[in-house]
């Protein structure tokens, strides 16, 4: 992967050099990982004009960093920092010593205090805003990235499938969430992609519900939302089931409605489709049934090294989908005091000639009675 990372840094360097920056300091952890591979959370990357890039970090203090320090290669070397020095401040100072007069930094990631410290540590350097250039580069995934997402989805499907084969009645939301996260790791995940949500009864259908000690009961809706992280890449799946021999009529009607909204949005995931049009596809179905206000601020979003990336599939989102962009589609409806339904999938945008949207999370969307 070192060649891939080097090529990514070269593209970034060429784009920013054309804009007048003589050096770049990348501090957002997901962006650093995209450009160099696995790195400690505090690592900062200095991208120089000449192609001599430096990764700075306190490796000896990175107890949670399980992977070895990247070896120095042509075009990238590592710098071990000591004491309480800020890697970003050290990177800007290093750029100044190398003759840089303009350094672009990720202002959207830096605090005001940290930005001031960068300026104070290198008074001869003009700081400019790199903006979200790296995030823009991350938008379209290469086949290695999609392969990692595909494996993450396979692990997630497997963990969820095993849970559905176990006895659920009487177990708490919290216990089920912990079991799902353990199963993700058992099947090869680096860890969960985000905090697993298990919601029963009146809690079901709520986005981001934090599991409680409420126990699963007969007749409940059971909503589960989880995802695996594999080689840094994250996916998402959400499913809703009914506990008991058969669902009630209102549960079937609500489930069919959310399923129809989710299907409409999935079918809209084509290259060239406007972000807000995908959201509109799901929202129109819910609005026609009187549940338009139940859908959250977005129908879905991009995934990759972070669980919430660009693009955002929301009513006001601007832009158009391109091929090889992985996104989630996750509509839900919650009826206060009764329960609700969520159906979430991770897909990759593909052209009709390539078979249309590629569904990564394949656990059945049939309303199962467990």
TrEMBL record:
Residues 8-140 form the Creatinase N-terminal domain. Keywords: Aminopeptidase, Hydrolase, Protease. Residues 148-350 form the Peptidase M24 domain. Gene3D superfamilies: Creatinase/methionine aminopeptidase superfamily, Creatinase/prolidase N-terminal domain. The keyword Protease applies. Coiled coil: none annotated. One of its GO terms (molecular function) is aminopeptidase activity. InterPro entries: Creatin/AminoP/Spt16_N, Creatinase/aminopeptidase-like, Creatinase_N, Pept_M24, Peptidase_M24B. The keyword Heme does not apply. This is Xaa-Pro aminopeptidase. It comes from Streptomyces harbinensis. The lineage of its organism: Bacteria, Bacillati, Actinomycetota, Actinomycetes, Kitasatosporales.
């Amino acid at each position: 992967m070192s060649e891939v990372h080097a090529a990514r840094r070269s593209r970034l360097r060429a784009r920013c050099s054309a804009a007048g920056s003589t050096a770049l300091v990348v501090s957002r952890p997901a962006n650093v990982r995209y450009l160099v591979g696995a790195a400690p959370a505090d690592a900062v990357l200095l991208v120089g004009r000449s192609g001599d890039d430096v990764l700075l970090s306190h490796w000896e203090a990175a107890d949670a960093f399980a992977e070895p320090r990247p070896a120095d290669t042509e075009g990238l070397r590592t710098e071990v920092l000591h004491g309480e020095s800020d890697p970003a401040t050290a990177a800007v100072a290093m750029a100044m010593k190398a003759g840089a007069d303009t350094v672009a930094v990720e202002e959207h990631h830096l605090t005001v205090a940290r930005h001031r410290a960068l300026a104070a540590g290198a008074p001869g350097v003009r700081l400019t805003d790199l903006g979200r250039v790296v995030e823009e580069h991350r938008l379209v995934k290469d086949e290695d990235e999609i392969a990692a997402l595909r494996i993450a989805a396979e692990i997630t499907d497997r963990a969820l499938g095993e849970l559905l084969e176990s006895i659920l009645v009487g177990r708490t939301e919290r216990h089920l969430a912990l079991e799902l996260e353990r199963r993700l790791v058992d099947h090869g995940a680096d860890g969960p992609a985000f905090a697993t949500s298990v919601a029963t009864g009146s809690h079901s259908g709520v986005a981001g519900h934090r599991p409680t000690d409420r126990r699963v009961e007969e007749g409940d809706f059971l909503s589960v939302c989880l995802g695996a992280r594999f080689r840094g890449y994250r996916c998402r799946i959400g499913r809703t089931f009914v506990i008991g021999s058969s669902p009630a009529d209102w549960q079937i009607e609500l489930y069919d409605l959310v399923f129809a909204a989710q299907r409409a949005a999935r079918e809209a995931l084509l290259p060239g489709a406007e972000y807000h049009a995908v959201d509109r596809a799901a929202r129109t179905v819910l609005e026609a049934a009187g549940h338009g206000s139940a859908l959250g601020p977005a129908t879905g979003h991009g995934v990759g090294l972070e669980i919430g990336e660009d693009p955002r599939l929301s009513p006001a989102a601007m832009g158009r989908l391109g091929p090889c962009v992985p996104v989630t589609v996750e509509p839900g409806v919650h009826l206060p005091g009764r329960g609700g339904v969520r159906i979430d999938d991770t897909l990759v945008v593909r052209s009709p000639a390539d078979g249309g949207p590629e569904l990564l999370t394949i656990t059945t969307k049939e309303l199962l009675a467990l």
